[in-house]
Every structure is written in C-alpha cells, then in structure tokens.
C-alpha cells in the first residue's frame, strides 16, 4: 500500500489496519462515519425503506475500495462520495413497486394514543415528502446537519464548499420547509429543524 496522505494519524492507522484485514479497524471506520453515510443516503434516496439497504451496499463499496484510498481527500469526503454515488445509482434503478398489505409493519407500540401515533407518523411522512422538494444541495446539507449531527465546518469539509455556503443552504432549506408546512406541521418542522 502506498503511503497515505491523511493528516489524521488515527484515521491513517485505521485505514491501514482495515486494508490489512483488521476487522476492528474497519468497524471503527464505519462506526465513526455511520451518521454521515446514513444522512447522505437518506438525503438522496429519500425513502426510509430503501436507506438501510443502500447503506449496507455503501459499507461493501467502502470495504472493497479502501485499498485504493490514498488519502488525497479527507476520509469523510471520500466516504461521502461513495455514499452519494451509491444512493444516486440506487435511485436510478428504483422502480415503482407495490407492497402487499400483509408485509406492512404494524403501528409501533407506545404510551401515546393511536390518534397521536398516527398524527406523528403523518407529520413525519409529510416532512419527508417536503424534504424531497428541496434543492439537492440544501437537502444534503440539512440532512448532514440534523440526521448526521455534523457541524457546519464538517459539512463544509465533506461537501467541499465554503462555510458560508453551508450556512446559506441550511438557512434556505429551513425557510423553504417552513413555507411548505402549515398549521401544526409548521411547529413540527421547527421542532425537527430548529435553530442550532
């Protein structure tokens, strides 16, 4: 393996270990970047039911491609590109499918009333649909911020854009979502994507 150009010593050792077959090192890489992978895939695919499958494919792609990683970009940026490409490819292959009613999950058991559970699910599904209407760059930035729990600086590094652009994307995404949501949906939107 060529000398890695990674600046981060810990990541350099993890990559070396994973390439040499150390399962624990690969697992640490995945654990460290899981939120990033999940939020990127979900941001592109937009469907919960597909996200986990695509995420698993991303893990496989990372494992296979890791020996070719040279560290010219940050590891998170490299992983972001793999996750995004895999999600875009899956989106292109997606075909409209129907699901038999018997395959649908039951409503989750909880302390809240059935009506409240249904309302919460409707609000979440509505927010998911509205997220799909956002510009892709705004959607990815807001997914990385709130689902991926990344800082503005991390998002700028991952997307390789200026910090100010990240702030603009997130601000515009919030404004658009608030505009699209009405009534109680607006409150849910503000709770889900509040200022921070």
Overview of this protein structure:
- With 196 residues, the chain is mostly helical.
- It has two domains: 9-93, RNA polymerase sigma factor, region 2, helix turn helix motif (Rna Polymerase Sigma Factor, Chain: A, Orthogonal Bundle), CATH 1.10.1740; 115-180, Winged helix-like DNA-binding domain superfamily/Winged helix DNA-binding domain (Arc Repressor Mutant, subunit A), CATH 1.10.10.
- Helices cover 69% and strands 0% of the residues.
- The chain contains nine helices and no strands.
- Helix 1 (9-19) crosses helix 2 and helix 2 (23-45) crosses helix 6.
- The longest helix is centred in the N-terminal third of the chain and has 23 residues, at 23-45.
- Residues 95-109 and 183-192 have low confidence and may be disordered.
């Amino acid at each position: 393996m060529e000398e890695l150009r990674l600046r981060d010593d810990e990541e350099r050792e993890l990559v070396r270990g994973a390439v040499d077959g150390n399962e624990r090192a690969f697992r640490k890489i995945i654990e460290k970047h899981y939120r990033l992978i999940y939020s990127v895939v979900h941001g592109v695919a937009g469907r919960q039911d597909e996200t986990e499958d695509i995420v698993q494919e991303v893990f496989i792609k990372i494992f296979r491609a890791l020996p070719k990683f040279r560290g010219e970009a940050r590891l998170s940026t490299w992983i972001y590109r793999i996750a995004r490409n895999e999600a875009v490819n899956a989106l292109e292959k997606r075909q409209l499918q129907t699901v038999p009613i018997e395959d649908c999950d039951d409503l989750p058991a909880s302390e809240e009333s059935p009506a409240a559970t249904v309302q919460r699910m409707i609000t979440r599904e509505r927010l998911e649909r509205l997220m799909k209407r956002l510009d892709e760059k705004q959607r990815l930035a807001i997914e990385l911020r709130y689902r991926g729990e990344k800082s503005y600086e991390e998002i700028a590094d991952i997307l390789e854009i200026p910090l100010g652009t990240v702030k603009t994307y997130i601000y515009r995404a919030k404004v658009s979502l608030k505009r699209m949501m009405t009534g109680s949906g607006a409150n849910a939107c503000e709770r889900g994507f509040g200022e921070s």
